[in-house]
DNA sequence: GTAATCCTTGACGCCGACGTCAAGGAAAGC
DNA sequence: GCTTTCCTTGACGTCGGCGTCAAGGATTAC
């Protein structure tokens, strides 16, 4: 099997497979014409990498699984090193999820506080003798130096 | 206030502040010597950006907050555009957290399955007439072509 | 005065996992 | 034989948010 077929069967691209090879994850035999030659076991390697990538594993983290398979084990996670990666990833996931939930709570708190503040301002505006109700955009336009910035200069690009 | 002082007071670096300016987030007046000149209101802008960055907001997502402050509003989230960003971020966070929890469940399942498989193999090895207990590493070393790859070729680096 | 520190702009580096383009050889269909 | 498709290597581009270095001018401390 050549690189194009392996890529198609694995649902990826030749470029990706060459990249894996460059990282030492997917060594390839060569035919007499210089073309890379793969077999079914290579398909398993690529599939293993794909599954882990979908889990959010970095390429380096897939290495123990790939080497486990290449060593002849039935599954990529038949080796202790792979299990260690699983456990480390679970810890990372727990930490990350915890942080994200903390952030979500804070953002939600900010949103609620800001909405309440706006509601208060709106209520005051309704009251007789309240402040002039200024349009959001109009307010911005009132101060001259706060006009739309036309200077947007991107780095290294003009 | 010059850029170094503002950076220090905001807990960031001059490079970062120049970067914000290049993105149109933090316009700076200039002194007669060409130095950037900032005041307390600029410190508020930078602090607003920092808070949102800590929440995981991208720089572009902080723009409505910064423009809101620059328009003279009391808070960066006093404007509807900022609230919209809050809501969008909450949705993104919910989606992301959900995905991560799904991945965590899958990884945990994989870990448990793999641990169970190893336990079964260990138990079989204990039984009389069971298979030869092969060392994890020894097994890998047995197949010659699966030896440690010494070819690790990094892209564009040798 | 002079050395140390601050400021300026410009430009390249970094990380990760590839995408994309280029120049050229091999293979496959007709 | 000819065209199209596939393969090869090499090298630059992408995205975000800066870090870091370079060359040179301004300010400040002593």
TrEMBL record, chains A, B:
What InterPro entries does the database record attribute to this sequence? Answer: DNA-bd_dom_put_sf, MerR-type_HTH_dom, MerR_fam
Top-rank taxon of the source lineage equals Bacteria
All copies of the HTH merR-type domain together span 1-68
Q: Which Pfam families match?
A: MerR_1
Q: Which PROSITE patterns match?
A: HTH_MERR_2 (PS50937)
Q: Which is an annotated GO molecular function term of this record?
A: DNA-binding transcription factor activity
Q: Which residues form a coiled coil?
A: 83-124
Keyword tags = Coiled coil, DNA-binding, Transcription, Transcription regulation
What protein does this entry describe? DNA-binding transcriptional regulator, MerR family
């Amino acid at each position: 099997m050549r690189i194009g077929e392996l890529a198609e069967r694995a649902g990826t691209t030749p470029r990706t497979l060459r990249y894996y090879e460059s990282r030492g994850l997917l060594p390839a035999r060569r035919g007499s014409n210089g073309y890379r030659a793969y077999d079914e076991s290579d398909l398993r390697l690529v599939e293993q990498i794909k599954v882990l990538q979908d889990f959010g594993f970095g390429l380096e983290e897939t290495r123990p699984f790939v080497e486990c398979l290449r060593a002849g084990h039935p599954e990529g996670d038949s080796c202790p090193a792979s299990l260690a990666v699983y456990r480390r990833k679970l810890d990372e996931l727990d930490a990350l999820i915890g942080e994200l939930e903390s952030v979500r709570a804070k953002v939600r708190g900010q949103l609620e506080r800001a909405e309440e503040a706006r509601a208060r301002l709106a209520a005051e505006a309704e009251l007789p003798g309240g402040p002039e109700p200024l349009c959001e955009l109009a307010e911005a336009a009132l101060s001259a130096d706060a006009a739309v910035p036309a200077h947007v200069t991107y780095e290294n690009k003009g």
